[in-house]
Give the backbone structure.
Amino acid sequence: MTTETIYLKDYTVPEYLIDKTDLHFDLSADDTVVTTRLDIYKNSAYQGTDKQPPLTLNGEELSLISIAVDGIALSTEQYTIDKSTLIIHQPKDSFVLEICNRINPAANTALNGLYMSNGMLCTQCEAEGFRHITWFPDRPDVMSTFTVSLEADKTLYPILLSNGNRVDSGELENNRHWAKWHDPFPKPSYLFALVAGDLACIKDRFTTCSGRDIALEIYVEAHDIDKCQHAMQSLINSMRWDEQAFGREYDLDIYMIVAVSHFNMGAMENKGLNVFNTKFVLASDKIATDMDYENIEAVIGHEYFHNWSGNRVTCRDWFQLSLKEGFTVFRDQQFTADQTSASVKRILDVKMLRSHQFAEDAGPLAHPIRPSSYMEINNFYTLTVYEKGAEVVRMLHTLIGAEGFRAGTDLYFDRHDGQAATTDDFIKALEDANNIDLSQFKNWYTQAGTPVINAQTHYDAARQVFTLNLEQSCPDTPGQTDKKPYLMPIKFGLIGQSGKPIKLEGEQQTVILEFNQAKQSFCFEGISEQATPSILRGFSAPVKLKQNLSFKEQLHLYQYDSDSFNRWEAGQNCLSQVIFEIIEAIQNKQQIPALDNQLITVFESILTTTNKVDFAYLTLLVSLPDKAYLATQMQIMDVDAVCSAHKHLKQALAMALKPFWEQHYLALHKVDAGKSNKDIGERSFKNICLDYLMATESKTSIQLAEEQYNKAQNMTDQLAALTQLSHLDTNQSKPYLSAFYKQWQQEDLVIDKWFSLQACSSHKDVLGQVKALSQHTDFDIKKPNRVRSLIAAFANNNLQYFNAIDGSGYQFVTDYIIKLDALNPQIAARLAGTLSQWRKFDEVRQQLIKSQLERIKSSKTISKNLLEVVLKSLGKSE
């Protein structure tokens, strides 16, 4: 197929802009008629050579009924139409364009544009879905006010929703009705939304800081109406937090959320009418885990925060995607940190970043947070744009300080309200508000890859001077070599021999160092003892840190570091070192070394000081490093050795500390499910104790898991126990898996969990089990959540068996990538990313994965979404 690469350097302003957009929908599942009226005018900023350029509109899978300008029908000579564009020849400087077209929502399996989900009609227009609804300049820098009229059968679609405020409604003949919505705030077409269906609603109110009364409404299918209260409270919490933290007040009279079961992403921030994946709305004590509750609040917060960082100020073009997404992820991370445990939230965010985004940075799909080119924009909804983008914003917050950052964002919102902005505009507002120069910092936006910092320290006892020497570099990435030095904040502290922090500047125990050269030294005077450096506190920059600390020094930080992140990090470094020593022994067929007594001593110290402790943080302190993250640290990933070494260390710690795991498990095990942060933390620690106890493979531990499963009164405990039981042989696990399915078969989100935990099982026939589940009556390839819960869960989270040496895992996932591409190219392309790291493996696996990529590439009907991922993975241009 032919594809076009879009380049940032080729950006030009639109030739025409739209003042008003009026839409009328005659809604039907398989034959919706869309009538569009656009008030169009020539852009005064247009600088092209053509005095009267043609008007080019985007449109795909549309059937034209009529087209007119200023009320006069156009002849076929006055316009050109093909599969993706409609071009009006010789338009006037100002005119009204009217278009009528047909679309078929029921046939839209790509879930892009207007489509059906369980009988409901709904939309997804980001990034380029609006062109599947009607012809339009479908780009984010064309902003317009929208007035939308919806007409439909009242029985099938009693609820008719769109952006903005409801301004009118009424009854029609033949059991039909209509509703009219108006959004007074100009927006690009990607923020348009429409929902029509038979939905139930819960309502609440919110009073803004200026005294405005806002109606809050959450719409779901009737059988889910009892699962919305947490989502509503999360929305209220988000609105209050954004006023307090960023001074942002909501602007419309109503804020609506609709939950749909078929959705390619987590949620969408359409102005005033957020469309959500059910996964991030529905919750109750019976069906939702503690993590579900937290994720729902975070995603609802994220989409609400977009009202300013994405809607009121949007992005000029899709290369600026991180302008709204990276900034808003940072905002939702801060929100969750304030609602829960800041230490735990920071660690969880970094764990995900390093396990997945760092791998993206190190592979063929690496790109800057502001890419310079793309073939398919949907492929750039990546961890780099979102999560690394958030880390870049966090560094700005650290460098400028909280007050300076707030002043900068206030200026940014005031300066660009109602505009389509760029990342340069964001940086300029921070510079102007704080009278600083951030030109070097912008390297973070243009350079791909994860920087590496080499740290060396020296202590001069005679002069009492402690010196920190830093050197930075960044490896080559596709299309980029010879990276320029970054400006980054390095939070630094010292831990004394007694375990107490040392004061560095005045009373400060942590200082922020501005590291902006290839090599740089920092000296600290008045240091009266040899101390252990605590570098990159709070993970103050998204880098890989290499330092010359001994195992003993790392253990010292693990036990005493006053920075919660670096204390956890020191523990992870110690545990990783032990695992890699075991891996080396396995690879060399040598005897596995005994567990270091010092490590056991530190673990005992942690496990015996649990008074007034944050149990959620304690859970992380005693957790082993992720296997996927460990594998990516190897020059050649040996997944079998990683999994074996990981299992061996867990068993060794489980046996050595068994009395402690048992003691804490029994002390914290409760059948009832409290909802406080303390209850949630205790539950998480209890369940990691169960995890260690199960590693002993004793009958007593299995009985504990069985008892917890049988008596569980909340999904967190039931699922934790079932996950442990799922790793047992089929005869032992099958009764529990069958019972769980029977109990929850009417709850889609719970069955997603049931599919997922089986896909992640560590027993040897897991692929056979996954294949059988793919034929299960409840598996639906057209439902993204179900695909993610089974196929993607196996590919992303079952390191050992997805990467089986016979290639069976690769072949199975590739089969589904090809099937999915014909139905939903976005989901297929994301799944294909699991094959992109093939160069990190041994030669046998390299050839196995490469052959599957070539197989996908040779497909005659491959989508441009999938083709881009495959070509980049193979290191080929088209």
User: Anything to note?
Assistant: The two ends are 9 Å apart (CA to CA). The chain has a mean pLDDT of 97.
